[in-house]
Amino acid sequence: MTEHRPWRGVLVATALPLNDDLSVNHDRYAEHCAWLVDNGCDGVVPNGSLGEYQVLTPEERARVVETAVAAIGGERVMPGVAAYGSAESRRWAEQAGEAGCRAVMLLPPNAYRADERAVLAHYAEVARAGLPVVAYNNPIDTKVDLVPELLARLHGEGHIQGVKEFSGDVRRAYRIAELAPELDLLIGADDVLLELAVAGAKGWVAGYPNALPRSSVELYRAAVGGDLDTALPLYRQLHPLLRWDSRVEFVQAIKLSMDLVGRHGGPCRPPRVPLLPEQEAAVRAATEKAVAAGSS
């Protein structure tokens, strides 16, 4: 772990194990967080989209953070603190700090298509909680795009220290580096990992390590280290799975892969519904092929 920049390295956006009645299985979640660290990951990001935070009660959401901290230590836990209101996001950031976390991840306002002034005010408010903030740019889902110029302004005003970049536009990495060289770029989508790693990413907020942590970490370390002889064959091997991270059904797909490798993926809460048969078959085939090739 990097002491002062705990968002560096491989931080897994954790899937949340649910029981058959769709209640949260906190014991299994604690075990999952510890298993990820034991298999080479640097930390976890609870209460992201992959963790189905939108359909958790406030009590469940708080306990998920506390469970992760108890399992692996607060310096390894960077919770998502997204909410419709800036005051609510700030309260979640404060809760993270009280639980022992050292940083939080924050989407822009997403109750409506916020303009630049609203985005700046939102991040300024949450930064007042006192923890370093990593922005999360997901213009596909939020309809608010944190373009490089806006990220540079947010960083320049001291509101953010890093950005999880999920736009899929790898060209932005170079523009961000020019405009805000001290802003840490984090890989935000599994299927552009190699491209952003080569472009200078300092971390990866990752999905598929939930199922295949060892191979995912090996891929990331090789990619950021410039070892393309190792990284490229692994990337090709895993890409049929990694691309699911950028699809609407990413939670279901990753949980299915977890089930197939002997972890507990399990069900999702509504409104998410099970994969279609052809989707399930594709994920199953890609997972089995990766495992047969030695991925774990």
Describe the structure.
The longest helix is centred in the C-terminal third of the chain and has 16 residues, at 277-292. The mean pLDDT is 97. By secondary structure, the chain is α/β, with parallel strands linked by helices. It has twelve helices and seven strands. The two termini are 22 Å apart. The protein is globular. Strands 2-1-7-6-5-4-3 form a seven-stranded parallel beta sheet. 46% of the residues lie in helices and 9% in strands. This is Dihydrodipicolinate synthase family protein. Belongs to the DapA family.
Radius of gyration: 18 Å
Reading the helices and strands in chain order gives EHEHHEHEHHEHEHEHHHH
User: Low-confidence parts, pLDDT < 50 over ≥5 residues?
Assistant: none
Number of strands: 7
Q: Strand count, sense and closure of the main sheet?
A: 7 strands, parallel
Mean pLDDT: 97
Fraction of helical residues: 40-55%
Structural class per helix/strand content? alpha/beta
Shape: globular
Question: Gap between N and C termini, in Å?
Answer: 22 Å
The neighbouring-strand order within the major sheet is 2-1-7-6-5-4-3
Beta content:
5-15%
Described by its quaternary structure, the protein is: single chain
Number of helices: 12
Keywords: Lyase
InterPro entries: Aldolase_TIM, DapA-like
Family: Belongs to the DapA family.
Protein name: Dihydrodipicolinate synthase family protein
